[in-house]
Amino acid sequence: MQAALSYLLHTLFPPTVLRPTELGADVLILATGVIIVTVLTRQKKWGWLWREWLTTVDHKKIGVMYLIAAIAMLFRGGVDALMMRTNLALPSVHFINAEEYNEVFTTHGTIMIFFMAMPLIFALFNAIIPLMIGARDVAFPRLNAVSFWLFAFGALLFNISFVVGGSPNAGWTAYPPLTELAFNPGPGEDYYFMSLFISGIGTTITGINFLVTILRMRAPGMTLWRMPLFAWTALCTSALILFAFPPLTVALGTSLLDRLFGASFYTLGHGGMPMMYVNLFWLFGHPEVYIVVLPAFGIFSEVVATYARKPLFGYSAMVLSVIAIMVLSYGTWVHHFFTMGAGPGVNVFFGLSTMLIAIPTGVKIFNWIFTMWGGRIRLTVAMLYQLAFIPTFVVGGATGVLLATVPVDYQLHNTYFLVAHFHNTLIGGTVFGLLSGLYYWWPKMFGYKLDERQGQWAFWLFFLGFWITFGPQYLLGLQGMTRRLWTYPFGFGWHELNFISTVGAYIMGAGFLVLVYNVLWSMQHGERDLTGDPWDGRTLEWSLPSPAPEYNFARIPVVTARDAWWAMKAEGRANQVKRVRPEEVAALELPRNTGMPFFLGLGFFIMGFGLVFRWWWIGIAGIVVVLASMLWFGFDYDDKKHVHPDVIRRTEAALGRLEA
Amino acid sequence: MAQKGFRARGWWKWGALATGLLAVSLTGCGPQYVLLHPAGPVARDELNLMVLASIAMAVVIAFVLALLGYVLWRFRDRPGNPAPYRPEWTHSRWLETLWFVIPALILTVIAVPMVGQTYALAKVPPKSDPLVVDVTSLDWKWLFQYPQSGVATVNYLVIPTGRPILFELTANSPMNTFWIPALGGMEYTMSGRVLPLWLEASQPGTYWGRSGQFSGVEFEQMFFQVKAVSPAQFQAWVNQVKGQAPAMTLADFRRLESPGTVGTITYSAYPASTFPAVTHGFTLDGGMYMVMSNRPEENQPGAPMSMSSQPKASSAAHARSVAPSAGMSVQPMKMPMPSSTPMQ
After folding, report:
1. A356 & A306 share domain
2. Domain assignment of residue A39, given as a range
3. ipTM at complex level
4. Based on the domain organization, do A12 and A141 belong to the same domain?
5. When comparing pLDDT for B319 and B182, which is higher?
6. CATH fold for the domain made of B36-79+91-121
7. What's the rounded Cα separation, in Å, for the pair A140 and B86?
8. Averaged over A649-659, what is the pLDDT?
9. Which DSSP string corresponds to A184-215?
10. E-assigned strands of A79-152?
């Protein structure tokens, strides 16, 4: 018994890695956990939490849960970034040691891509897409909850690695043979492969779900060519997910076979082929870049039209360029490793295909600018992010063309020039886009506006901090500084720019704190949105009250034009659409809440945890939970609840939307 | 009020941008900007292309910024703005064609020399007699072997100026990239493959090289110095090494293979089996070498025996007599020099 206990302690908390950062994280996690449990118990909220949130299948609530998880992960990834920047501020700073640094840059990248950007996108998809296309829910509400819980438990598994056993430490791309058991014996890489494997299943399901939702559940009259751009980008993103995640799943699964069961797909010896992993990873990885940036393009297309009071310029060109980007993005993956010696023919092909993708992207930039031409531009926070996005993303795209120029990439590959480039596109594109979307749709999601003045502070800190952080990194690339260095000596002359960059990172951190303050303050004091249409919006979600009732639309609207709500307002039918006559209200069937997705995710978590430590019986127990949940799911025919018309009439009357 | 505040902050932004640009143009000439100070033809060609692409992209960026600034200034929502409000103007065929065609043209300006340059860099200049250096990345050190003379170094390189160097890159460790920024772009070192890369130093000097691909806890130590010297000095260095340095034994190689860091080491000779004899990496022409084994102990059971029977060359005379034959005996197994091989 004692031997087992000491074995357990030794495995979970290896004595060599008791570090101050880890201890701090332990204390923080424990304290937060204790506070949450205490509050929930004292307020008697456990039942409420379970009934209203953990078992919900309502797309709007799932969106909120995605949002909370994503903000928490943004915090975690941001702290990782600050730890890195602190270490690099000056030559030979040893704030954290090499092992910690390697873990931190790995978790920073992985978390920001998989557990921050993706869920934040899904938060907005869930919260907005059904409202925007005039649907009562997504096509498969229960699968939607399954997606969320697989993501959430995958993220949990990934995050506990820091305090239980050790984090992955081979970069977010996890190239073998560095991730091979022989070179990386700890549990860190198992955590990486296992957690991404689990959340990847969830993401694939989300892709299927929104693909079907958008194709099949649009309101009558909303043809594809009348669909808002955000819905178009959601459609294309879902298609990208559907075809891009399988290669990743294969790469992760085979890597797990290598590590857990001694296979040799990518090992250094026994005929393994590490470069095959690199191909599979980027076959996913490049479309992934567009998976996270296309929704931002969609958000900007909605935001710019609303705040310039003008329909999107060149709608057809915009849609076609989204489709072109979707198709082309599958043909560019080798540009991530021009320097692996594939020969000039292959490199030239992928260099040209990468340049080609710049053209539809350029078309979009000009169309956004010309949407503003002849409009009336209101400088709200959402619009500020849009205006900051254009120059930032154009610079990111321009440096991307430099990197696509094959011989130039030979010099710039894996330098800080590259680091600056992809942060320019991922922060300037994705993060600015998602923040813009949050400020824009926040009233729709929560019923109150985020304070504009505080939002402007957060924006300027974030925007200027961004350029102070990443501007110098382009120059560091030209000075030959390569990425993933935990420290550097004085002699290279890299210290000045690194110091500036670190200052910028802290400014961005301050911007994040102001953003959180903005949310918390506005929760109490923010302007309540009673109209449902605070920005004079253009699309259907603004015809609903904020936040929308559980069933979204008491009566599904009929769409007659692009920018449907704008057209209804222009025709003077706004009140007609908003108000419903009692006899028009029919009984509804809505999906019934279920705990199955939660237990399914929990089962995967237990399985993953068991396999990470090779505790086979725990792994098998997890698989049993997974199978039991699926059986439960399969035989649960009572998955709908009926909503009586009177309930809807009462809700609508309370919102002042029922005709007398 | 808020609008005024915005405008003031906007000026601040432009001021910061202008200061930043000025700072860049002032510091851009410093020697620490190693990519902007090429010391060989490969790096120079790559820099020229980078400059061309940067200028083309700067034109695009400047145009977009100017357009955005103008639109923002003219169409702000403020009372009495005289600019026309035209919500019905949502499409213009010729404008949309224009910003489809112009970026395509600008990209063509970059793409055409890019294609030519990519093919050109993939071949050692014809009629040259390249010096071959076999590079192996290990955990966490660089092993350089000179098959033509049989000497080997660890963590530093000596090369002659004015002569192309053909690096043959492999790894006995997780991946790294081999990079000497002053001389040219990087290439991966991968176990089980041998990738070719040619570079050349025009002027004598000391340059630095390092790995660009993260390879584990001592990755920061994947650093080496490159001394470019005149051909005569290079020959003198080779002779000196042959006369003074010890020969590498297989046991020495095993020690190098095991994880850890070392300083610089010099060997007058090395066992042939320490570098892959026949490779299935790619050739400089984009074709493929033949199948190989990277691990000496796996497919060449005889080789280690014969090598270990080779006496340790502790004396200068011994090294001279043994090393060249050890070095040369492997070479015939290799494919012909890629530069003299036509495209497959």
Report:
1. yes
2. 1-44
3. 0.91
4. no
5. B182
6. Helix Hairpins (1.10.287)
7. 42
8. 90
9. --SSHHHHHHHHHHHHHHHHHHHHHHHHHHHH
10. none
The sheet that has B195-199: what strands, in order across it? B195-199, B165-171, B131-138, B141-146, B151-154, B265-267
Q: Is residue A607 part of a domain?
A: no
- CATH number of the domain at B131-338, please? 2.60.40.420
With 90 as the cut, is the pLDDT of residue B186 above it? yes
Q: Which residue has the higher pLDDT, B16 or A462?
A: A462
Average pLDDT over residues A373-385: 95
Please return the burial class of B240, using the count of CB atoms within 10 Å of its CB with bins 0-12, 13-18 and 19+: middle
> How confident is the model over B35-74, as pLDDT tens digits?
999 999 999 999 999 999 999 999 999 999 999 999 999 9
In chain B, residues with a C-beta closer than 8 Å to the C-beta of A410 are 46, 121, 184-187
Q: Are residues A398 and A497 in the same domain?
A: yes
Helix (H/G/I), strand (E/B), else coil: B210: strand
Mean pLDDT value across chain A: 92
For helices A229-261 and A118-132, give the axis angle rounded to 10 degrees: 140
Domains: count for chain A = 2
Answer yes or no: is pLDDT of A391 > 90. yes
Task: Tell me: do A65 and A210 sit in the same domain.
Answer: yes
Q: How large is the average pLDDT for residues A318-344?
A: 93
pLDDT at B246: 95
Chain B residues within 8 A of A456 when measuring between CB atoms = 6
Confidence at residue B28, expressed as pLDDT on a 0 to 100 scale: 55
pLDDT at position A266: 92
Long-range contacts of B126-129 (CB under 8 A, 24+ apart): B126/B339, B128/B163, B128/B164, B128/B339, B129/B163
In this prediction, residue B15 carries a pLDDT of 64
What CA–CA distances, in Å, run from B112 to A657, B109, B119, B210? 63, 6, 11, 31
Same domain, A38 and A76: no
Q: Per-residue b/e over A379-416, b at no fewer than 16 CB within 10 Å?
A: bbbbbbbbbbbbbbbbbbbbbbbbbbbbbbbbbbbbbb
The residue ranges of every structural domain in chain B are 36-79+91-121, 131-338
Instruction: Report whether pLDDT(A220) > 70.
Output: yes
Kindly state whether residue A624 falls inside one of the protein's structural domains: no
Residue B168 tokens read as 């043959």
Amino acid, single-letter form, for residue B42: V
pTM of the entire predicted model: 0.89
Check CB contact under 8 Å for B215 and A178: yes
Report the gap between the CA of A29 and the closest CA in chain B (Å).
27
How many angstroms separate the CA atoms of A506 and A495, rounded? 17
Q: Is residue A631 part of a domain?
A: no
Looking at the structure, tell me whether residues A281 and A413 fall in a common domain: yes
Higher pLDDT, B186 or B342: B186
Higher pLDDT, residue A308 or B25 = A308
Cβ–Cβ contacts within 10 Å for residue A235, how many?
Answer: 25
Same domain for A114 and A38?
Answer: no
CATH number at residue A185: 1.20.210.10
Q: By C-alpha distance, which of A78, A16, A176, A105 is closest to A486?
A: A105
- pLDDT tens figures, A58-108: 999 999 999 999 999 999 999 999 999 999 999 988 888 898 899 999 999
CA distance A326 to A305: 23
d(Cα B53, Cα B58) in Å, to the nearest integer?
A: 8
Write out chain B residues lying below 8 Å of A453, CB-based. Answer: 2
* Helix locations, B230-315, DSSP H: 231-244, 250-257, 296-299, 302-309
- Give the B window 22-51 contacts with A, CB below 8 Å: 24, 27-28, 30-36, 43, 45-47, 49-50
Q: Which pLDDT belongs to residue A186?
A: 86
- A611 lies in a domain? no
Q: Do A284 and A255 meet the contact criterion of CB atoms below 8 Å apart?
A: no
- Verify that A239 and A352 share a domain, yes or no: yes
- Note whether B279 contacts A: Cβ–Cβ < 8 A: no
